[in-house]
C-alpha cells in the first residue's frame, strides 16, 4: 500500500506521436504525507540517473485520498515549478506550455480508484510560478480553467517498471531529522516498498523487538482461568 499522498515522475520513450505510453515510474525521496509544491520541487530535482536519460518525461503523478472536480491550485503550482527541473528528459517550460507534460492524479475514492490527466495552460503556468499561497484551496488569481483534462487510456499491452532510490528507502516521514532537500541519490530498477515498511521506520521495529524480548521472560501475575 503506497502513501495516501505521494508524488512520482512518469517517463516514456520519445515517439513523436500525440499518444505516449507510460513505461517507467520514478518514486523520488519524500519527507512526509503532506504534499506541497516546495517539497515536490526539491524531491524530484535532486536525482539524475542513466536509467531515465534515454526517456522523456511525461509529467508526474499525484496520489491523493480525495478526487477533485478540477486540478488543485497546489498541483498547478507544483507543475509550474517542476517545469525545467527535469529539462534533460524533456520536462521544461516549453514542453509544459505545449501540453506534452501532464499532471496525472490517482484518487482513492471509496471502494475504487479514480484516474485523471490534466495539462496546465500557459496562463496556469504563469500563475503557478508566482503563487506563494500553498495552503488555501482558492488562492488569489486561481482559476479551475488552469487545468484542462487530457485523454487517458488504460491498456494491458504496455509493461512498465519502477524506479526507486538506491537502497529502497523513499520516505523520511518517520526519520525527518535525516531529511534534507539537498540530498543526492541514485535511482534503481525495483518496486517501491510499503510506506510502513521496516526500512522507513527502523526505530519502531527496534522498539517492537525490544518489547518482545522483554515480554519473553515475563511471568503472569494472575491465574489463567482458562488454562
Q: Would you kindly provide a written description of the structure presented here, covering whatever features stand out?
A:
This protein has one domain: 3-Layer(aba) Sandwich (Cytidine Deaminase, domain 2). 23% of the residues lie in helices and 19% in strands. The protein is globular, with a radius of gyration of 21 Å. Strand 4 and strand 5 form a beta hairpin. The model has no long low-confidence stretch (mean pLDDT 75). 31% of the residues are buried. With 227 residues, it is an alpha+beta fold. The protein contains six helices and eight strands; from the N terminus they run ββααβααββαβββα.
Number of H- or I-type helical stretches: 6
Tally the structural domains.
Answer: 1
Radius of gyration: 21 Å
Low-pLDDT regions:
none
Identify the strand order in the major beta sheet: 6-5-4-3-1-2-7-8
Q: Give the mean pLDDT.
A: 75
CATH names the topology as Cytidine Deaminase, domain 2
Query: Rough shape?
Result: globular
> Can you identify the CATH class?
Alpha Beta
What CATH architecture do you see? 3-Layer(aba) Sandwich
Amino acid at each position: 500500500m503506497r502513501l495516501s499522498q505521494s508524488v512520482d515522475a512518469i517517463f516514456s520513450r520519445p515517439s513523436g506521436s500525440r499518444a505516449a505510453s507510460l513505461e517507467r515510474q520514478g518514486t523520488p525521496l519524500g519527507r512526509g504525507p503532506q504534499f506541497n509544491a516546495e517539497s515536490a520541487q526539491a524531491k524530484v530535482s535532486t536525482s539524475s540517473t542513466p536509467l531515465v536519460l534515454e526517456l522523456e518525461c511525461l509529467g508526474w503523478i499525484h496520489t491523493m485520498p480525495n478526487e477533485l472536480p478540477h486540478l488543485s491550485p497546489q498541483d498547478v503550482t507544483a507543475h509550474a515549478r517542476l517545469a525545467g527541473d527535469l529539462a534533460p528528459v524533456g520536462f521544461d517550460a516549453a514542453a509544459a506550455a505545449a501540453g506534452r507534460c501532464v499532471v496525472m492524479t490517482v484518487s482513492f475514492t471509496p471502494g475504487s480508484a479514480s484516474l485523471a490527466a490534466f495539462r496546465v495552460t500557459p496562463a496556469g503556468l504563469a500563475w503557478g510560478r508566482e503563487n506563494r499561497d500553498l495552503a488555501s484551496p482558492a488562492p488569489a488569481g486561481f482559476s479551475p480553467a488552469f487545468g484542462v483534462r487530457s485523454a487517458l487510456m488504460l491498456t494491458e499491452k504496455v509493461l512498465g517498471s519502477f524506479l526507486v532510490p538506491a537502497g529502497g528507502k523513499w520516505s523520511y516521514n518517520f526519520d525527518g531529522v535525516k531529511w534534507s532537500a539537498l540530498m543526492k541519490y541514485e535511482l534503481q530498477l525495483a518496486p517501491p516498498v510499503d510506506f510502513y515498511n521496516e526500512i522507513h521506520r527502523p526505530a519502531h521495529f527496534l522498539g517492537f523487538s525490544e518489547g518482545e524480548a522483554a515480554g519473553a521472560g515475563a511471568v503472569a501475575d494472575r491465574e489463567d482461568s482458562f488454562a
